[in-house]
C-alpha cells in the first residue's frame, strides 16, 4: 500500500480523556475513531490488525474441531425469557423495540440463541460432540465505557458453544478449548495465564479466565510465577484424545482472579514464587451443564433411548479488546511494537527523498519485490520530512522499516531497522530484500 | 470437512411461508435459520458462501483503489440530525435509546458517519481522491420482511464512499465503481445490468442500479437486450485513467427501472431488442455532490486556497442478498447449482458404503489429496443411504460430486458428476483427482 493513497490519519497528541497507553496509541496511530461513548470506527490500520487477530482465533478454533456459523446481532427478548435471563440481565443489556412493538435486544452473548439453533436440529447423541462458534459484534451498555476498545460498548467477540451427552464429554470439550486458548494467545505474542474465575451472569461451576498481566489491568490477580513462563502446547496435540494432563499441569499451580482469590491457599505457594499483579481478561471459558438446555428443552436421546438435556459450555475471546491488550504488553515511548503475527503490514518503506529518481526507483523496486513475495508493505511515498516519516513508522509499529535515502543509494546500500530491538544495519538492497523475504512472518 | 463432524441441518421440506426458490432452498440446504422476522442466523454452509461473496467484493474494491475500514453498527442520532435525515428517514430506521437516555440508531447506511470521519482528518485537495468502504451489518426495519435474505431486516452490505475536489473527479470515481461492479458481479456468475435509477433517500442526480434478471424479481425493469449479454471489462483496465468509454458503452443503450422508465424512449428501441422483465437489485451507486458535505461542513482546500465542500458518491452492494440472487439465477428442481467462484466447497465426496474398508480407504485418499491441493471438500462419511446422500449433494449444489462405491472400486473406478450439467463419467481415482486438481476453481 502506498501511503499517499492510504487513509492513515495519525494524530500528534491523543485526546486528554485517553488514560492508558493502548487507548492513546490507537487514537494517535489512526487505528480507531470514537463515534459515540464506547463505540468506535475501525480505521484502515486498526481493521487490518483486527482482521489478523480474528483470523488467528478462527484458525485455532477450526483446528480444535469447532464449526463456524454467524448469528445475528439482534435477538428476540422472548428467547431470553425462556432462560430467565431477560429480566436478570440488568441495564447492560441494550433493549430495543421495533416498528411493530416487538421487543428485541442487541446480543451481549449468545447462549440462548445457540441453544435454540441446536435444539432445532440435533436430537441424538450420535451427532455429539459439537462445538459451534461465531465472531460477531456484541453490545454491552457499560455504565462508564473507557480505556478505548478495552471496555467499549460495541465490541467484537468470538464465542464458542460446546454440546455433549454427559459430564465426561463436557469436560473433554472444555479441555479442548482450554488448550486451544493457550495456543491462540501464544500465537499473538501474549503470555495469557488461565485463572480460576467467577462465573457471573453466564453461570456454571467451572470457569477460567485467560489473563494477560499488565500494570493497567482492570483487576488484581494472584498466581504462581511459573505459569507466566509456561510454553503453549502447540498445535500437535491429540485434539480428540485426552488433554487432561495438559490442563492439570496449569491448574495444579495457584492462579485466581480477585473474586476467587483465597489468601490462605495463596500463602501456601513459596514466597518467591508468588506473583500478585494486575491483569487484563482476554478470554473466559465456562462449563455450565444444563443451565440453558434444561429450561429451553434442548434434549438429546442417549444410547439407552432416554432423552436428557445436553451438557453445554461457552468460550469467549475478546477479539477487539485483544488489540488493547497486545499494545499494553508491547509498546515503548515512540509507539506500538506489533508482534509479527498481528502486525498491520510486515514492512514499512521510508523514501527519504521522494522525487529523487534514484530513491524512487529503489523504493519502487523494494515495494514490488516484497509484495510479489507475499509480504504486506506500507510504502511512505509522501513528501513529508524524514523525521516525520520516522516518527510515524515508529508510532504505527511495523516490525521492519527499510530506510532508503540518497546518501545510501549513492553508496549502494539501504538501511533496515527492527522496530522491537531498535537494531539498525545497512546492506545492499538485494541482501536486505532477501533477508526480509526469507523471514517467516507475513 | 467430514460431514459427520459438520453441522448441516438439511430439511426435507421448506416452511410454507417461504415463497420463492432461493428462500426455500437456503432453508432446506441448512444455510440459514430465521431467528426473528427478517433476522437470520447464518449456518455453517451459508456462512461459507457469504464469506466467499464478501471476499470477491473486497478484492474488486481494493483493485479499484478503495480502502477498507469498518464503521460500527450503532450511530448517534445527532449525527443524522446534521444532515437532516434523522427526521426524514421514517419508520425503517431502528431507533434506540441507551441507559443514559442517549438516542442511537442501528445504521441503515453510512453517509453521515463517513462524512464525519472524513472531515475529521482530510483538509486538502492533495489527499484526494479517496474512496473508503466497509462491509458491515445494517438494519432496515422493513414493514413486511420476506423472501428470506432478499428482503431481510438485518443484512450485510458493502458500502463505499468517494471524495473528490470537483465534479470531474467525482465522475471519475463514479466510473471506477461502475466498472468495478461490472467485474464483481461477473465473477459471481451473474449477468447484472446497470440501469438508470431513482436516488430515493440517499439523494443526488446520478444513479444506477445493478439488476439481475429473475422471474421472482421485486420490480419491473426495461432494457435493450444486448446489455444482458455484454461481457464485463475484466481487471486489466486503466483504473486511474479514463473509464468513460466503458461506461458510455453501457449507458448508451436503454435501461431503466420502473421508477425511471420512459415508455416513449423505450419504444425507440427496435422491437426485437426490447426486453421487459423483472429484476433483483444487487447494487446501487449514487453521485450526490455536496448533499452531505455542505450541511456537515466537510470542506477541502483547493489549489486556489479556497475551501469547498467535498464532492461525494456512495456505492452499495447487497452482500447477503446476493446469495438469494445467485440462487434465483442458478438452481433446478433438485437444488442449488453454485457457480464455482462462490461454492461453499469445491467438491463433495460421497462414500456409498461407509464402513467398507476399500470404499473408506479410497474416500480418505481422495479427501486427503484434494485438501492437500488446496481444494475445499465436503466428505459425506455418514452412514446414510446412497439415495439420501445424492439428494443432499444435489440440494447443496457443490460444483463436483465424486461418488465412490464398492462396485466401482472393485473395477478400479470412481464416478464424477458435474452438478451444473448433470454429466457423469467414470475413471480411475487418480485420473479423476488429477482432473479436479487441475481445474481452476478453489
Name the quaternary structure: homodimer
Low-confidence stretches of chain A: none
CATH superfamily membership of the largest domain in chain A, which one? Answer: Bira Bifunctional Protein, Domain 2
Helix- and strand-based class of chain A? alpha+beta
Biggest interface and residues each: A-B, 51 and 51 residues
Alpha carbon gyration radius of chain A: 24 Å
**Distance linking N and C termini of chain A:** 14 Å
DSSP strand count of chain A: 23
Examine the coordinates and then state which fold CATH places here, giving the name of the CATH topology of the largest domain in chain A.
Answer: BirA Bifunctional Protein, domain 2
Average pLDDT level of chain A: 96
Q: Largest beta sheet of chain A, briefly? A: 9 strands, mixed
Give the % helix of chain A: 25-40%
Q: Count the DSSP helices of chain A.
A: 14
What attributes does this structure have?
homodimer, alpha+beta, 2 domains, Rossmann fold, 28% strand, 14 helices, 442 residues
In brief, what are we looking at here?
2 copies of one chain form a homodimer. Chain A has helices spanning 21-28, 44-63, 77-83, 85-88, 111-119, 167-187, 226-229, 244-251, 263-267, 319-329, 357-372, 386-396, 406-411, 429-438, and strands at residues 32-36, 39-42, 67-68, 74-76, 94-97, 103-106, 130-139, 154-164, 192-196, 206-213, 219-224, 255-257, 274-289, 299-301, 307-309, 311-318, 331-332, 335-336, 347-351, 377-380, 400-404, 414-418, 424-427. Chain A has 442 residues and is α+β, with helices and mostly antiparallel strands.
